[in-house]
Amino acid sequence: MKPAPFGYADPTSLDEALTLLTEDGAKVLAGGQSLLPLLSMRLASPATLVDINRIPGLDSVVVTPSGDGAGVRVGALVRHVELLHHAEAAQVQPLLARATSNVAHPAIRNRGTTVGSIAHADPSGEMTSVLALTGGSVTVATPAGSSAVGWADFFVGPLETSVHGPAVVTEAFFPALPPRTGTAFEEVSRRKGDYAVCGAGVTVTLDEDSRVTSARASYISVGLVPEVHDLTDAVVGQSVDSADWTAAGALARTLVDPDGDLHASADYRRLLVGVLTERTLARAAQEAQNR
Amino acid sequence: MTTKLMGEPVRRREDLRLITGRGRYTDDIGHGAAAAAFVRSPYAHARILGIDVDAALDVEGVIAIYTYEDLVGPMAEPLPVLIPHPQLTAPRTGFPLARDVVQHVGEAVVMVVATDRYVAEDVCDRITVSYEELPVVVGVDAARAAAHAVHEDVPDNVAARHHQETGDVEAALAASARTLSFTQYIERSACMPMEGKGVHAVWNHDDSSLRVHTSTQASTSVRAAIAAKLQLSLEKVEVIAPDVGGGFGVKIVHPWPEELLVPMAAIALGQPVHWAEDRREHFISSAHEREQRQEITVGYDDEGRVTALDVRAWHDNGAYTPYGIIVPIVTATQLVGPYAVPVYRVRIDSVYTNTVIVTPYRGAGRPQGCYAMERTMDRIAQDLGLDRAEVRRRNLIQPDQFPYDHHLTFQDGRPVIYDSGNYEGLLDKLVALVGWDRAEERRAEAASRGKQLGIGMAMYVEGTGPGPYEGGHVQVLGSGKVLVSTGLTSQGQGHETAFAQIVAHELGVPIEDVEVTTGDTRRFGYAVGTFASRAAVMSGNAIALAARGVRAKALRIAADVLEADVDDLEIDEGLVQVKGTPGASIPLRTVAVLSNPLRYAFDEAARQATQFAGPGDDSKPPVAVGDAPGLEHVDYYSPIRSTFASGAHAAVVEIDPTTWEIDVVDYAVVHDCGNIINPMIVEGQVHGGVAQGVGGALYERMAYDGDGQLQNASFMDFLMPYASEVPDVVIDHQETPSPLNPLGLKGAGEAGVIPGTACIASAIEDAVGRRIAAMPISPTELYDLVRNPDAERVPAAPTGVPA
C-alpha cells in the first residue's frame, strides 16, 4: 500500500496552480482524505499532485447574513471542523454544522476540506447533498477565468463532475436559509462516523399561520448524484402540528432509486429514506416556527 | 507485606511504553534494510502459465526477484502441516511461493526485494503473471456439494472427517421424550491485529548466523522452522518477537511463507531484508475463522433435560490446512459447555474452499460450539415454554461432579476432563448482574419508548492452558535486579506485569526490580507459544516454579552466612532476614554475589559482599557437586491436561423497529478463570473479547463473492466495532482454582469472545420474535427477516419467571 511515483508541486498562487494543472495527469490535493487512500491502494496514479494548501485567500468562511448574496461562502481550504464550529455560518445556514457533524471522525474533519469533498462528488458525502438542498453553487477557476457553476450542472455522476481540464474549485456557496424555514439532518450508519447507509437533509418552510408551504429533501448514499426531492405535495397547507409526515416519507420512498451494496439492500435504503424523511421533516417544521 | 502481589490490580508496566509510541515493533527495527513486497494471485483458483519479469528488471532500485523456480531444497517443498491428525486424511499446504496452481486470492506468487517498499511495489506492478482460471469453490455449501474440487486430488473437498461420540446417539434420540432439529450458519471473521505480520532478517556473514525479528506468537518454533527450511544449524538462528501489536491467533501459524522467504533473501543477498504486511495483504493472505454450517438434533425430557445431542457440521478450512483441524476439534469438544450431555455425537467435515486459510482466531472454534449448544438451550426453553435460564440450570454439571469426564478427546490429544468449576454459581451471579428477572418490566418500558427490547444469555466452558510445556528462567543479579524470561511471546496481554507480579510475590522482591523478557530465543530456547489462553497457566506456573527454585537457593546461601536455619528465614522487599530478629539479614542482591565464588570486585555490590564471605571450607570444592554458580534457576511446567475456565454472558439489546438498528444496551459477564493474578488485566481481556464478540455478532464478515474475491478487504468495508459500538461491560468474577497447577490458574485470554454470537443472537430473537438462523446479523438482514412472511416465529417463553 505505497503510492506509485508521482510528482508534487505546492504553488503559492492560483495562476501557478492552474498552469501546473495543465500538465497531463495533474490532480489537485487539498485535505487528501479521499485522494491519499486511493493513491496508497494504487487505485489512482496521478502524475503530479498540485497541493493548493499554500495558496493564499482560499481558507476563509465568509458569511453574508442578508441581502444580495446572502449565504455562506466556503473557501477551498476550509476544513470540515471549521464549519462544524462556525456559529455565524450556522445562524445563516444551519445545515452546514448539522451535516459536518456527520462527516467521518474528528481526525478526518480536521484535515478534510468541505470543498474538496464536494469536488470529489461522492454521493455518500454529506456536503454534496447539502450543496444541492440549499441550491448552492461552486466557483471554478480555470486559466480562462472564474465562473460559478450551479450544483445541478456540477454533479454528473459518482465521483464525476462537469469540470474537465485544468481547474480548481476555489469556493462553495451555500445560500442563506429563507425565513420561516427549518432544517434537519440525520443519518443511519453501520458504525458511528461511517459513510451513511442512508442520510437525509431536509428543509421545511411555513407560512405565517404555520402551515407548510415547502418540504424538500436530499439524501446521502442514495442515487448516483445528489438530488433534491420536493415533498411539498404530501403536506402542503397542513398545520405544523398535524402534518402527515408519514405521507411525505411514503412519497419520498417512491421518488428515490437507491442501489444495494455490502451494507444495505436497495429495499432497506428505501425504508430508511421513508423513516428519516418522516423524522427530519417533523423536526425541521418545529424549528421553522421559530425562525 | 508489600511484596505479596498476587491478585492485585497492578497497573500494566508496559502501557506507558506502548501508548506513548515507544513500543518497538518489527517495522521499527532495521531502518535501511531492503524491502520485500509480493505479487499475489488476483484469482481464487488458477493455473500459473508464466511469469514475465522483464519489464521489472529496469526499475531503478530493484535488487532481486524470486519465484518458485528460485526455491531450493526444503524451500521447494510444501509448507509443513504443523498439527497432523489421523482424521485429517487429505492435508494440503501451499508452497512459500506458488508452484503451479494458486488456491486463493492473495496467495504469494513472486517476491520482490528492492531498496524500499515503494520501489518494491513499483517492481511488482511491472511483473506479469499469466493465469488460466479454474472453477472456484466458495462457502461450506459449495464445498460440500463438490461440483468443483479445490484440490484436484481431493474431489469431495473434504480434508478431514472429525468424529467423536460418547454412546449410541441414535438409540438415545429414539428413546428421548422430545426431540428437535435445526440448521444454522455462522460467518467468517478474522483476528485483525493492529499490527500485521512483519519480518526483519539479518545475516551475519562473519559468523554465519541469522537474526530474525518477526511478529509471531511462537518464536522458538519459527526458529526451528527457519533452521530446517534454510538448512541452518539451530544455534546459528536467533528469532525474536519484539513488541507485537496484537495476535489473536493469526500469528501462531508458522512458518508463514514470508518468515522463510525474507531470511532466505537476506542470506542470499548478504544484506538485511524487511517486510511489513499491509492491511490488504492481511485480509487476503493471512487467516480467517468461524464459518460453519451446523445441523443439530437434540433429545430432551419434559423438564428440558438433554438426553442426547447429535451435531453434524461442515467447517470451512479455506484453501489449505497448515494448522491441521484444531478449530473443528475445538468446536466438537467444547460445544457441550457446562452441561451434562448423557450421549453426544459430533461429526464435522473440514472442507476446502478457494479462500484464505482458516486457523485459530481468539476462541478458536469455541464461539461456533457455544453458538450451537446455547441456541439449542434456547430452543428447548421455547418448546417447553420455560425460562431460558431455568433450562440451562437444569442441565448444568453440578459442583460435586468434578472432575467431570466428558469422554471426549481434546485438541491436545488428552481427555476432556473438567478440573473444577461452579457453573450454577456463574448462572446465579449472571442472573443477578444483568437483572434477568426484571426483563419483562424492561421490555415494557422500552416499548413505551418505541423500542423492542430483548435479553439473551450464553454460557461456556473453555479448555485453557494446554501443554506440552513452558519454561521459566529467574536470575537475581548483584545489582538486585531480577531477570525473568520465558520463551512464549507477548502481543499486548500484559505479561510483563503479570509475570513480574508472580516473581515479586514468590521471591519477596519489589516488583520494580523485576524485568521480564518474553519470546526471545537468545534468552530462552524452549517454548511452545502463546495461544489457547495458555500464557498465565503455562509460563506463569513455570516462572513461579523457577522463582521458588531461586528462593530455595537464596535461603540456603543466606542460612549459611547468617548461621541460621533455612526455615527461620524469610524474604521481604529483597531482604533475607531471620524471622523476628531485626538486623540479622542480608540483601538478596548480596546473596546473588555470594552465589558465585568468583568475585572480582568490579562494583560496589561485590565489595559489599566480601564482608559476608567467610574463609570457606577447604575440605569442599568452591562449587558443591550438583550446585551451580549464580543465583538463578530454570524450571518447566508441564500439565497433565488442560484446565477448564468458564463463564456466562448476558446481553440486552434494543431494536428500533423503524430502522432495525440493533443497540446492545447492557452486557454482563461473569467469569471464572481460577485464581486471578491481576484482576485489571483479566477485565481488560474480557473487555477486548466482548468487543470482538460484538464484532462477530453484528458487524464483521468476510464478503466473498462467487469468484472468490473478497469484497470488503479494507477497514472501510470490513466493520470492526469502534468504541462507540461496544457496550459498557459489567463484570463479576468467580474464582474456582484449578487443582492441576501450583498457582491454581486457568486461562483468561479468549473467554470474552466465546459467547458473544450466541448471546446476542438470543437477545435479538427475544426482541423481534423471529428465528435467527445465521450470524452475524445486520440491520438490513434483520429487516429482511422480520418482513419475510415465511420467517419462523419464536414461541413466547417467560423470561425471569421461575417455572
UniProtKB/TrEMBL annotation, chain A:
Keywords from the UniProt entry: FAD, Flavoprotein, Oxidoreductase
This protein's record includes keyword Oxidoreductase: yes
Domain FAD-binding PCMH-type: 1-179
Recorded superkingdom: Bacteria
Keyword Calcium: no
Pfam families for this protein: CO_deh_flav_C, FAD_binding_5
Name this protein carries in UniProt: FAD binding domain-containing protein
Organism name: Klenkia terrae
UniProtKB/TrEMBL annotation, chain B:
GO molecular function, one term: carbon-monoxide oxygenase activity
E.C. number: 1.2.5.3
Pfam families per UniProt: Ald_Xan_dh_C (PF01315), MoCoBD_1 (PF02738), MoCoBD_2 (PF20256)
Enzyme class, UniProt record, top EC level: oxidoreductase
Aldehyde oxidase/xanthine dehydrogenase a/b hammerhead domain: residues covered: 20-135
UniProt keyword Disulfide bond present: no
Keywords noted in UniProt: Molybdenum, Oxidoreductase
UniProt name for this protein: Aerobic carbon-monoxide dehydrogenase large subunit
Phylogenetic lineage: Bacteria, Bacillati, Actinomycetota, Actinomycetes, Geodermatophilales
